[in-house]
């Protein structure tokens, strides 16, 4: 992070990225001295409520973050920036988004945790829009013009006031990650599920140790029972504890995540939840501690990849490993949809594997309860997640492209690789009704893996 003094003294000339957090109430005029080079501007955590009329002078600006400020209206001057494509106004006080306030080249729009009641019809002009975060607002509907946003891939609508999910949204050809819990949805053919009560424990029952990880909805700690419930006697003392953040996260309400996690129930490839913490000051999950032999399959998307995962340099997986991981994922997703739960965040970075390609899947921050949807929409939600599965498969194939090609040629695994390539194409089909269902994917992978093993033994 830079300083205002350095900016005003001319020490930051020709920089491409600028981050200032000094309780600013207006945009420093010296920022315009950087107009020829500045591509990323982060003025989050200030006290700004407006932008100057000539903001469009920042002709090279591509990314703008203004989270945790005091904006009540999305500034119309954003549309004057010829290259601006990523915009973040999380946690402001925005209630109004005017027509044509956004650049038509917008790819990534973050308006989480505001007070927006309606979006303009001009949203439909955002033909490049891929990622849209609207959780924690007051939206009761979406503009029908957004059916023209054919490149939308990730949408967060949780914690709003929607009474229904529009069919056109579920039919967008590239939509793969959707979250909508915490709305006012109702339908005539809602299904009733029997969800067993989860054991409740207190924070005083647990000693927290080091932090293991952090996501949008919470922080995960290593823990140890200092007062283990009788029903858990005989299970390990060491546990993992996820404590949820605040009232609204980028994916929705923590209480909804907890409910979906419990509704999902148990599966061999789901990180096992053994109890919940549901106190006034603490909401969380107590989970089995994942063995240290497990590691993340991938890394989160970058600013450049937008919606697609990245992978550690040198990470390499064989055809058989990829097939085994995907077989387990398909079985897990079959289970979740049988429980009327969509995960909403089917990604490599939420997937853990070990050296034997055994898989564990978790993080229900973007999950949604599908029981509140009509049957046809529940089926469409599965097709959306099948596309996310196809993206995972495609990312793994691309990250290992040369290695897989060489391996297939040398070890006779071309048939298994061909199955994966065909599966990728069918899962990514633009027509959601033509994508396979998870149980079909699971069966096809099981057959292909079994056949490959049999041939290897001959």
Give a written overview of the molecule.
The chain has eight helices and 19 strands. It is globular. Helices cover 24% and strands 16% of the residues. The strands form four sheets. The chain has an eight-stranded parallel β-sheet with strand order 1-2-3-4-5-6-7-8. Strands 9-13-14-12-11-10 form a six-stranded mixed β-sheet, with helices on one face. It has a three-stranded antiparallel β-sheet with strand order 15-17-18, with helices on one face. The mean pLDDT is 93. The protein is α/β, with parallel strands linked by helices. Helix 4 runs antiparallel to helix 8 and helix 7 packs antiparallel against helix 8 (438-457). The chain has three domains: 1-152, Ribonuclease Inhibitor (Leucine-rich repeat, LRR (right-handed beta-alpha superhelix)), CATH 3.80.10.10; 200-288, Phosphorylase Kinase, domain 1; 295-457, Transferase(Phosphotransferase), domain 1 (Orthogonal Bundle), CATH 1.10.510.10.
Question: How would you summarize the topology of this molecule?
Answer:
Layout: H1 4-8, E1 17-19, E2 40-42, E3 63-65, E4 86-88, E5 108-110, E6 131-133, E7 154-156, H2 167-170, E8 177-179, E9 200-201, E10 206-214, E11 218-225, E12 238-244, H3 254-264, E13 273-278, E14 283-288, E15 295-296, H4 319-338, E16 341-342, E17 351-353, E18 359-361, E19 368-369, H5 375-399, H6 401-411, H7 414-427, H8 438-457
Parallel strand pairs: 1-2, 2-3, 3-4, 4-5, 5-6, 6-7, 7-8, 9-13
Antiparallel strand pairs: 10-11, 11-12, 12-14, 13-14, 15-17, 16-19, 17-18
